[in-house]
Design brief:
single chain; about 350 residues; alpha/beta; Rossmann fold; Uridine Diphospho-n-acetylenolpyruvylglucosamine Reductase, domain 3; 2 domains; six-stranded mixed sheet; four-stranded antiparallel sheet; 14 helices; about 50% helix; elongated; binds adenosine-5'-triphosphate
């Protein structure tokens, strides 16, 4: 009997962990570019899913940006069909006319197509091949741009993507392992020229920065960066939960009878951040820990209609200054033409300027 390559075993174990306990009986859908990471993911899923009584499908997106991309997509879909994936689809997208640079436009088109495919096939989850190396790169890039804890938390192993659960089973598997797994299985991955294009910051981190860090600090640096992401993610989730609780609508029991809600002992009730009639209470906001308060303000700004992508830490800092550095300043302007003013102990929003 031929021994199972450790790299293949590692990928299968990771996929088994991710698929175990998934609710619903639809298929899982692997997003596969044909590169080593998502090919190793696909091969592991083709092995594991049927053994868990789960169907597996595969979608590859053709961005139509490089010559021969349609042939690559067709080859990936043909391999998927031969490996037993149903569906095994190549989907062509139109990247032109989308906002942002070419990379962002391709990414947006890709995720839109993947979500549509997941819905079309009633998939219970979409699987991507992000590895521990991708995670380390993400954390370093976040650190370099001063992204704060949300960026340092890296990519979560699961998140919601427009109503579709997105799973990243290989976040603890290295890129070296995915390459070895493909080699052990006789699969020939596609090399995306973008991955080595030095005009992308991520490619430079991949080619120069991480190897330099490993040389200087040892191979554990990759694991350590990924662990940092997990630790920060746990803290961030706790702070997010506190902020969500603080921003929850006022408890009707407290509004009706504050003393009774406090247990009848006349003790203080926690100050309500939301005030009846709209707006937020400055006094209640001032009583929150800064890390919770800035999250509350960020969430409130989004609720008012400020687009998350346009909402920067400067906007949140300006809102925070209305609470903690009040000098009678005028309105704070948020993306989308939203103005926030402090009046009579409240932060109130005024809609987009006409
Ligand atoms: N053309 C494609 N078709 C289908 N899936 C793809 C394609 N390109 C990438 N993916 C999926 O996305 C994963 C990550 O790929 P890549 O790192 O190139 O994307 P990304 O833009 O960095 O994604 P993210 O921004 O979410 O990190 C791959 O492992 C694969 O699962």
């Amino acid at each position: 009997m031929v021994a199972l390559a450790p790299s293949v075993a590692a990928a299968r174990l990771a996929v088994r962990r991710a698929l175990t306990g998934l609710a619903g009986d639809g298929p899982v859908l692997v997003a596969c570019s044909g590169g080593a990471d998502s090919l190793a993911l696909a091969a592991a899923t083709a092995f594991v899913a049927p053994r868990l009584g789960r169907r597996a499908g595969l979608v590859t997106v053709d961005h139509a940006l490089q010559a021969g991309s349609d042939q690559r997509a067709a080859a990936v879909a043909a391999w998927a069909a031969s490996a037993g994936f149903t569906p095994a689809e190549a989907v062509r997208v139109d990247v032109a006319g989308r906002p942002g640079g070419p990379e962002a436009a391709a990414r947006q088109a890709r995720y839109q197509a993947l979500v549509e495919a997941a819905r079309r096939h009633g998939a219970v989850a979409l699987l991507t091949g992000h590895t521990r190396d991708d995670q380390a790169e993400t954390v370093l890039l976040a650190l370099a741009r001063g992204a704060g804890p949300r960026g340092l938390a890296g990519m979560p192993p699961r998140r919601d993507l427009s109503g579709v659960p997105l799973l990243r089973p290989l976040l603890d598997v290295t890129r070296e392992q995915t390459r070895k797994a493909c080699a052990a299985l006789g699969l020939s991955p596609w090399e995306d020229p973008h991955n080595t294009d030095p005009s992308y910051a991520r490619s430079r981190v991949r080619a120069d920065v991480l190897p330099a860090l490993v040389r200087a600090l040892g191979p554990a640096v990759l694991d350590n960066l990924a662990r940092t992401a997990r630790l920060v993610a746990a803290d961030t989730a706790a702070l997010d939960a506190l902020a969500a609780a603080a921003l929850a609508p006022p408890d009707p029991a407290v509004l009706a009878d504050p003393a009774a809600a406090a247990g009848g002992a006349g003790g203080p009730t926690p100050a309500e951040v939301r005030v009846p009639g709209g707006g937020l209470s400055v006094e209640a906001l001032a009583g929150l820990a800064p890390a919770v308060r800035t999250r509350v303000l960020h969430a409130w700004a989004r609720e008012l209609g400020a687009a998350p992508a346009a909402l920067s830490h400067r906007h949140v800092a300006a809102l925070d200054a209305l609470v903690t550095d009040w000098r009678g300043q005028g309105a704070t302007h948020l993306p989308g033409g939203i103005r926030v003013v402090r009046r009579a102990g409240r932060l109130n929003a005024a809609g987009p300027i006409a």
